[in-house]
Amino acid sequence: MRKILITGGFGKIGKHFIQNYNHKYQILAADIATNSETFTSNVQIQQADLLDFSVCLKLCEGIDTVIHLAGIVDPVSESDQILDTNIKTSQNIFKAAVKKNCKKLIFASSAQTIESYPTDIQINKNMLVKPKNIYGVSKCFGEALAAYHAYNNEISAICLRIGAYEFPKDFTEMNARDLSAYLHPDDFNQLLVGCIEAENIKYEVLNAISENRYKRLDITESKEKVGYRPQLDAFELFKLTKE
To answer: Are 93 and 60 in contact (CB under 8 A)?
Structure first.
């Protein structure tokens, strides 16, 4: 089994992946806040503060692939803490992954990196970043840092621009833009597996949304590069039409 480190392993994305793929991978779930939840014997749990580089070094020992989900997710606040935390934790875990000879980094970026484009424009990976908030800025930094390590330090890196990740049971009112950027958790799990298993990738920025009838982000390369096969369409799932 590949040994996978998932930072932010107790967030909703991390937990959903672990619950569904702990049979396929040996997983180390690291988070600053853990709970009493138990998984199978293939899953280790470690409370960890990624602001401490020595902690990151220990986490990356013997790891094949690092999935970096940890960080402050807040597209509204303009607090300096978002930059301080998201930049430093990414810097620490990426550097540790290189020093411990991990083979691959998968970075949870965000559609917020491009949200200053008009909503009637579909975004592809070759368009310049255009963040709308400080959170998006922190993700732009992570993408650049991943590229630096991929091209200079012998590690594969994939950055996933995650859209509106939400479980259908938790459905909140979404406008047409939100539906066009919707990402079903099961689709994202399949994309993560594709990224883990993909070979001969130096560096990629891939868009991560479902097979929505109208798409805020172009997912052509996600399909081509890592075999992404999304199954859900938000407009059909939630029985809504584009305004």
So the answer is: yes
Q: What is the pTM of this model?
A: 0.95
Sequence-distant (≥ 6) Cβ neighbours of residue 235 within 8 angstroms: 179, 212, 213, 214, 241, 242
Who's near 13: CB < 8 A, 6+ residues apart?
69, 108, 162, 165, 185, 188
Q: Say how far apart CA 219 and CA 188 lie, in whole Å.
A: 12
**Which domains occur in the chain, in start order?**
3-237 (3.40.50.720)
Please provide the DSSP assignment of 156-201 as one string. Answer: EEEEEEE-EE--GGG-----HHHHHTEE-HHHHHHHHHHHHH--S-
Cα–Cα distance for residue pair 29/26, rounded to 1 Å:
10
pLDDT tens digit sequence for 71-124: 999 999 999 999 999 999 999 999 999 999 999 999 999 999 999 999 999 999
Q: Which of 125, 145, 147 is nearest to 137 (CA)?
A: 145
pLDDT in tens, 26-58: 999 999 988 767 677 789 999 999 999 999 999
**Chain center to CA of 242:** 27
Largest CA distance in the chain: 51
pLDDT above 90 for 243: no
Residue 145 exposure: Cα atoms within 13 Å on the Cβ side: 25
- What are the φ/ψ torsions at residue 180 (nearest 5 degrees)? -70, -20
SS3 138: helix
